Amino acid sequence: MADAPSDPPPEKPKTDFQLPSLKKIREFLFGVMRLEQSVEALKKENRKLQEQVSRLQEQVIEQGGQLKVLLHFVDRSVGDQVELRAEKAASQTVERLVARQGINKPQD
């Protein structure tokens, strides 16, 4: 028997999937590397900001304590001034009453 012409091999069904080109793979890897660098830079900046926030919180606490001392001092000073003025007013009132009593006193 003579070799009969062989049938061509059946065609493989075409799929939509194709391997990406080296250029696309390279672009993807560079993108990933840029993202990693950005994340690291953001982490570093975040640490610096957290340190600043901690320092500011300490300052707020310290200034809050100083403010309490100042408020106590002002409150005490104002209270003392009010008390002095009240004593002075009372003293002046008593002096006026005594002076009137002296004027109105019948002479012997």
In short:
The protein has 108 residues and is mainly α.
3D structure, described in words:
With 108 residues, the chain is mainly α. Helices cover 77% and strands 0% of the residues. The longest helix has 83 residues, at 22-104.
Mean pLDDT: 87
Helix content: over 70%
Number of helices: 1
Terminal Cα span = 175 Å
For the sheet with most strands, the description reads: none
Give the beta-strand count: 0
Spans of at least 5 consecutive residues with low confidence: none
Q: Report the β-strand fraction as a percent range.
A: under 5%
Alpha carbon gyration radius: 48 Å
Order of helices and strands: H
Q: Could you say which overall geometry the principal axes of the C-alpha atoms support? A: rod-shaped
Structural class: mainly alpha
